[in-house]
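Hi all, posting the design record for the shared folder.

TITLE: backbone redesign
STEP: 1 of 1
STRUCTURE INPUT:
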């Protein structure tokens, strides 16, 4: 683990050297030349997720609920040609709270050299990079596997990261590495080191954040590996995504992930370790029905929780969680307008009660770019 930490530190040092060299180069440019070629812009937007859900626990009374899951306000803009700022907020219905989602200073010199500073998604698994608004399935972050990394809020941490995209023959390599505040995420004051490497073998995925489907806009074959380390404790994931366009505007998608949380992150604070994997397949039907297309999706997940902490005089027993989800979605305008009917059954071999739930969710997003001349 000490060798891994040394490698990460060296990478951060090298990346920051490139960053500061870019700042020096930028500072040496004539101001008039920058202003002549620079046209600032601001992008504003908003997102909404809301749903109706029926929940039936095993041996208990059912509940029916209308939930306002998320309201997000987006704001981003250019400071100079090479410096941008992003500020997003999120209202979380389950806690009736409004929080800072992202607050990032972004330095971008080219596709190879980008540095972000502030609060944002650290290098982690694809499902963290997609978030609930750009996921393929509805019931995100309930399977005990995806995105169990430690966080301050909604997967975000406070820190600094370098990222870049590199061509390697016909493939694209996406690499990111960063250092994040441990005290705010885990209560441990040691730094959290985070790194991710991804290879896109077919079409490239531009930028830092990702989707878990592109609804037929891309042919994808992507493999990603991510790791976070704090005080010898680790959180490690491997994710896979394949998507093929179908003639007429459809898409066939396969997604999978393996995760292992070793005393860092995880879904249950009463257990030091958890491990598992899921597989997902979806089909976006090419034929339009009205203003949109239907998508069928199925997912199976299996997670095991071990290393239970001592509660009173006994140690919490290990247990296993299995999750099955099926979705029928009506895709009107990709991630900007979609209606998703979902059903999910969650079973345990002990410790917790089985339950199933079903419902209908609505997602809407808008955005507008404003240019200043």
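Okay, here is what came back for every position:
SEQUENCE:
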């Amino acid at each position: 683990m000490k060798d891994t930490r040394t490698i990460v530190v060296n990478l951060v040092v090298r990346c920051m050297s490139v960053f500061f060299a870019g700042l020096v180069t930028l500072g040496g440019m004539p101001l008039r030349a920058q202003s002549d070629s620079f046209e600032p812009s601001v992008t504003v937007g908003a997102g909404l997720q809301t749903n109706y859900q029926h929940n039936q626990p095993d041996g208990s009374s059912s509940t029916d609920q209308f939930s306002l899951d998320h309201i997000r306000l987006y704001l981003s803009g250019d400071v100079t040609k090479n410096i941008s700022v992003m500020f997003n907020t999120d209202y979380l219905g389950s806690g009736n709270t409004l929080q800072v989602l992202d607050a990032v200073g972004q330095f971008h010199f080219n596709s190879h050299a980008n540095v972000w500073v502030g609060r944002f998604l650290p290098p982690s698994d694809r499902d963290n990079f997609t978030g609930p608004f750009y996921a393929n399935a509805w019931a995100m972050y309930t399977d005990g596997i995806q995105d169990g990394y430690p966080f301050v809020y909604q997967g975000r941490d406070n820190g600094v990261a370098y990222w870049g995209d590199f061509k390697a023959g016909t493939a694209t390599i996406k690499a990111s590495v960063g250092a994040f505040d441990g005290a705010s995420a885990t209560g441990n004051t040691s730094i959290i080191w985070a790194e991710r490497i991804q290879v896109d073998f077919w079409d490239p995925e531009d930028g830092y954040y990702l989707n878990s489907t592109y609804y037929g806009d891309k042919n994808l074959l992507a493999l990603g590996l991510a790791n976070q380390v704090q005080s010898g404790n680790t959180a490690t994931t491997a994710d896979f995504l394949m998507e093929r366009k179908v003639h007429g505007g459809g898409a066939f998608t396969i997604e999978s992930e393996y995760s292992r949380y070793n005393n860092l992150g995880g879904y249950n604070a009463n257990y030091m370790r958890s491990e598992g994997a899921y597989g997902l397949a979806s089909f976006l039907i090419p034929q339009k029905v009205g203003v949109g297309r239907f998508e069928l999706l199925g997912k199976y997940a299996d997670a095991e929780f071990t290393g239970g902490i001592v509660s009173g005089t006994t140690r919490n027993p290990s247990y296993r969680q299995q999750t099955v989800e099926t979705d029928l979605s009506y895709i009107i305008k990709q991630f900007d307008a979609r209606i998703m009917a979902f059903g999910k059954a969650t079973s345990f071999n002990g410790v917790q009660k089985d339950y199933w739930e079903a419902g209908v969710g609505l997602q809407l997003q808008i955005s507008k770019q404003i240019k200043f001349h």
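COMMENT: The longest helix spans residues 2-27.
Let me know if anyone wants the other runs.
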